[in-house]
Each structure stands twice: as structure tokens, then as C-alpha cells.
């Protein structure tokens, strides 16, 4: 069974224990052993406790990190102060981190490898604490580690419909080698010429997959594999990044099977021009119930390419709002897909790429509200799903932003 996001509603005092157990179990499965697994459990439990104490509609989300083998613990709610200053939730006396009287966010900064905190007007504060397993590139594991994060900044969420353990949606992201111009069927916006392709020879790999050292096309990577999986993190100056969200028709095991096959096909050759990659996914889904599939690619020159069939939504976002909404072709990948076509934006202006299934109500984009579109990638999918999740459906969201540096 592929890994999904564990959602813990922080409605009562039992939420702290539930969140702690979910984090400890996920951390152990992802290679965070011993004291590091206990740190994730401590933080997840105390975030849930802080939210439950205010009896508000907050939640804790536990999931594999999209940047490699590791764990993300995210939370959202107004009980979590943005600056950890006056009025901040206090870390309980006797807790290992922060010490008696220390604030919750001070303790999180001490325990996590990476921490992102943002206030979201009308939605409370969102927090994402991230831990990386030993041997994962990007930063040495350990409390309070802070240094440059190589490659794109990525956030993801994959939630099954309430009451089910399998999710018919999935996401994937991979680095692909940049290449010269080629005839890849990509059209620019009306009036614009076709731009350079990111084509690579069929089957070209994307470098080692996170965590297990195998090529991105060489089978499931560790952690959130195969559905919801990231390839190697590229040097942002020399490589492109390709992202996919797939929504298997319906939900349950049959939809999850289609999503898994789509992710495997994606990682077999993530460097293909997007129409050819879509065709490869279409062929892989023959005989399944089919899926909607959305693909986005950011190249080294800042341009963005898009190719979608079905109801996966795709955007370029910035602090100033929704900069571009992409349209999709009608059809079902694996069944009655039209010849896929792609579009190219010459410059995404360092915007964040966002893909999500229809488990997120698409009306959010008509009036996103202050602060939402400028959220860091690790927070954006969680905040979006928390506020705009559609009833009775799986939900997956994937955000890919340019590399960021943490202090």
C-alpha cells in the first residue's frame, strides 16, 4: 500500500496521542529511528494538544517529505502563533525541548531539521516541521540544522476520502536534464512562438531517486512509493523539474491502482516532452478505470510547460495572486484521450507551480484571499486542502517553487 497523508483533527484531548503515534510510526517506516522518531512524535503531539486546547477547527497532517526520505508534520489553526512571542502556546513543563516556559515554536525550531511558519489571515497559522533521514542529501540531519536547500522547494498532500485507507489520487515530481530545442508539439500562448523543448532521449533518467540511490525510472523509491514520489533534487541552474498529479476515476483500491501505474509510468521517463509523457501514461493505464492527469514542467530558463487531460487544475501563483490558470483537454487518460497538446509560458516570474485534483474545490482560485498564493510550497497544499477540501472525494495537491534558503 502506498503512503498517504495522515490527517488528525485536533478536536479533543485524544488528538495529541493520535498525532504522536502517527508521527512515530511514519518516522520509523521512513528511516528516522530512535531519538529522531521521538522528536517527530513529541512535536506532532504538542501541536495537536495546542490546537485541541482551543477547541477550534485545527488539524495535524503527517506525511513523507516530498524532498526525499524523511517526514513532514504540518498543522494549521489559530492556536499556533506566527512569531512564538507574547501569547504563544507554552511548551509543557518537563518536556525535553524548550524547557519549562519555552514556547511551542521555539521548541519546534530546536527539534526539526527545517521549520516553516506563516500566518494566514482568516485561516490561522500554518506550520510545517521537516525531518530528513540519514544519508538524504540537502542538509545534515539533526536538531536545528539550517542551511541552503538545493533544488526546488516542494510541498504535497495526499488524502483519501474519509473512511478509506487507499487514495485514488497521487502526485509525482522529478528532476529532468535540460536539453536543446526539439519538435515536441508544445505551443506557446496565442501569438507566441514555440519555445525550446526539454526533450531527452526516451527512457532518460532523472538522476538517483531520493533515498535509495536508484535511477528515477528504476523502480519505487523509498518512503512515499510509488504513488507520491520524488526524483532527485536538481541544481536549479542546470535542470528542469517535472510535476504530475493524477486523479483515478472514482476512489478506492481500483482508483489507487490506476494512480500507482501512472506514477510508475511517469518515473520511467520523466524527461520526455510532455505530450509524449502523457501518451506513455495513457498506455500504462489501458485496462484500468482511467484517470485525469495534469503535468507541469519548469525549465532552467524560467519557462513553464503544461499538458493536462481531465479535471486536474493547474496554476502559476505569486504573492500577487493567481498569475495564470491553465486549461485542460477533455477525456480520460487510459480510455478516450485526445492527442495531447502542451502550452508554454515564456516566463513564470519565479512563481509557484500548483497542481491539484478536484478533491480541492476549484472556486478557491476566484477569490484566494490575502496571503494564500504567497505561501511557501511546504504549506500551500495543506492550507488549501484544509480550507477548500471537497466533500466525499480523495484530494491531492502538489506545489513546486524555486529553491529557497532558510536562515
Describe this structure in words.
The protein is α+β, with helices and mostly antiparallel strands and 407 residues long. It folds into 2 domains: 142 residues, Histidine kinase-like ATPase, C-terminal domain (Heat Shock Protein 90, 2-Layer Sandwich); 245 residues, 4-Layer Sandwich (Phosphatase 2c, domain 1), CATH 3.60.40. 19% of the residues lie in helices and 26% in strands. The strands form 3 sheets. Strands 8-15-12-11-10-7-9 form a 7-stranded mixed sheet, covered by helices on one side. A hairpin with a 3-residue loop joins strand 4 and strand 5. Helix 1 runs antiparallel to helix 2. The longest helix has 19 residues. The protein is globular, with a radius of gyration of 20 Å. It starts with 5 loop residues before the first strand and ends in a 6-residue tail after the last strand. This is Stage II sporulation protein E (SpoIIE). InterPro entries: PPM-type-like_dom_sf, Ptase_RsbX.
Strand order of the largest sheet: 8-15-12-11-10-7-9
In angstroms, what is the radius of gyration?
A: 20 Å
Question: At the third CATH level, what is the topology name of the largest domain?
Answer: Phosphatase 2c, domain 1
CATH top level class name of the largest domain: Alpha Beta
Protein name: Stage II sporulation protein E (SpoIIE)
InterPro entries: PPM-type-like_dom_sf, Ptase_RsbX
Biased composition (Gly residues): 204-221
Biased composition (Low complexity): 222-233
